[in-house]
TrEMBL record:
Pfam families in the record: Chorismate_bind (PF00425)
Annotated protein name in UniProt: isochorismate synthase
Catalyses which reaction(s): chorismate = isochorismate
UniProt keyword annotation of Isomerase present: yes
Occurrences of domain Chorismate-utilising enzyme C-terminal (ranges): 173-423
EC numbers on record: 5.4.4.2
TM segment ranges: none
Keywords from the UniProt entry: Isomerase
């Protein structure tokens, strides 16, 4: 299996996003990545190579090995640089966690692929990277795909049949009981914080159009990441506000996002709630654990870390969070840093191992990709990964939505349940919306 992989890069004329999304409907394996306040969109179609994690090895070590075995097979027949060639996909929250929920299939253990075609649209510049196992057809494949992109009719990404039929939230009582058990455990032991997640199953009258959902989220949640991982096992979609890492040589940027309050109905109420959050002991404590842990890990890797002393507010349409951007400079080994950082106390807890044991014991479901780093990793080890929260697995007519909340000793189960309910809202609204005004796009 040491077949060479050939690749080429060409510039494309300006093609409408609508066409790019339309063409994606034909592909079973696909990926889209858009970071907040960034006009670059990365779209990937099909896989020339793919990797499902198994439980035998640490997933970050496993991906490093797979990446280096692929790197040896890359042959540049077109003098394009390998820079923009990237693996795309998602790690798993915990590949070793027992699979309580069968709906994840093997996707729940994490999945990356090397795309057949990658389109990178950055403002008015669009480039197409094509990978092929056959050097004689590479150019032709690339030209053909470019032609198809331009020719495809950008048919409306209709959401009209997404009538919500049923929401199954039977696990809620079980989840609030898990929160109570956890606060008791925190008070008893040296456990500081545990993030507990719950899932919500929603069924619809028709097959969910994951591309339409992605597009609508970009319009309704303008300040978040927008990521879609489309696979044979279903589509994982995330509109997360949380960066796991943006990295290139000698620089690693991350963020601590934790502590949540709702948005106000008007400016005055919103400012009041924001200020309340900025002064709230419980939330400040929750977020401080995240900042301090991330700083310590990065410093252990000999990185020089810079961040502000006090958090700021990160506002999304439904919720606002405490947020500290963290910058680290110096030489580092990417996969070792990723391995040590995941999961941060924003999604796991503190101390990490004890918190993970508590999660495994009391959480009703399986997280799968929820809360995992997902994004793209270039072969030169630059790239960006977000934390897969505000997310759902879409399979056929069913959506499994996920949301979690940080539990500390002062947590109240009802408040935490309300917080997770708020976190479900953006996706629930888009999934259940029968109005497709947003999807008639250019
Ligand atoms: C776990 C989630 O969010 C995390 C938990 C937060 C909190 O407890 O306040 C805030 C942001 C995230 O770090 C989620 O949105 O599902």
């Amino acid at each position: 299996m040491n077949q060479s992989i050939f690749y080429s890069k060409i510039e494309l004329p300006n093609i409408k996003l609508k066409k790019m999304l339309s063409l994606m409907t034909e592909w079973q394996t696909a990926f889209i990545f858009q970071a907040p306040s960034n006009n670059t969109i990365r779209l990937a179609y099909g896989a020339v190579a793919e990797y499902y994690f198994d439980r035998s090895k640490n997933q970050f070590d496993a991906l490093k090995e797979w990446q280096s075995s692929l790197k040896k097979r890359l042959t540049n027949s077109e003098k394009a640089e390998a820079e923009h060639l990237a693996l795309v996909g998602s790690f798993s929250f915990d590949p070793n966690s027992a699979g309580k929920d069968v709906f994840w299939g093997k996707l729940g253990q994490g999945y990356f692929f090397l795309p057949k075609y990658t389109v990178i649209k950055s403002g008015n510049n669009t480039e197409l990277i094509t990978c092929s196992l056959d050097s004689t057809t590479l150019k032709k494949e690339s030209r053909l795909f470019a032609k198809k992109l331009q020719a495809v009719s950008g048919h409306p990404l209709s959401l009209t049949s997404h009538e919500t039929l049923m929401q199954n939230d039977t696990a809620l009582a079980q989840w609030t009981a898990a929160v109570s058990a956890t606060t008791a455990q925190i008070k008893r032991q040296q456990l500081d914080k545990v993030v507990l997640a719950r899932s919500l199953e929603a069924n619809f009258s028709d097959t969910i159009n994951s591309l339409a959902v992605w597009r609508k989220l970009t319009l309704t949640q303008p300040q978040t990441y927008h990521i879609l991982l489309k696979t044979v096992n279903g589509s994982f979609i995330s509109s997360t506000p949380e960066r796991f890492g943006k990295f290139k040589e000698n620089q690693f940027q991350t963020a601590a996002v934790a502590g949540t309050i709702k948005r106000g109905r008007n400016r005055k109420e919103d400012d009041y709630l924001g200020n309340k959050l900025l002064q709230d002991h419980k939330n400040l404590q929750e977020q401080k654990y995240v900042v301090e842990t991330i700083k310590t890990i990065l410093q252990k890797h000999n990185l020089t870390v810079r961040c502000s002393k006090r958090p700021q507010l990160l506002k999304n349409p439904n919720v606002q969070h405490l947020y500290t951007p963290i910058m680290a400079d110096g030489h580092f080994e990417l996969f070792k840093v990723l391995r040590d950082l995941h999961p941060t106390p924003a999604l796991g807890g503190l101390p990490r191992e004890k918190a993970l044991r508590q999660i495994a014991q009391v959480e009703p479901g399986t997280r799968g990709l929820f809360g995992s780093p997902l994004g793209y990793l270039q072969f030169d080890n630059a790239g960006e990964l977000a934390v897969g929260i505000r997310s759902a697995l879409l399979t056929g007519k069913t959506a499994h939505l996920f949301a979690g909340a940080g539990i500390v000793s002062e947590s109240d189960p009802q408040n935490e349940a309300a917080e997770t309910q708020l976190k479900f809202q953006p996706l629930l609204r888009v999934l259940g919306d029968q109005n497709d005004e947003y999807t008639n796009i250019n």
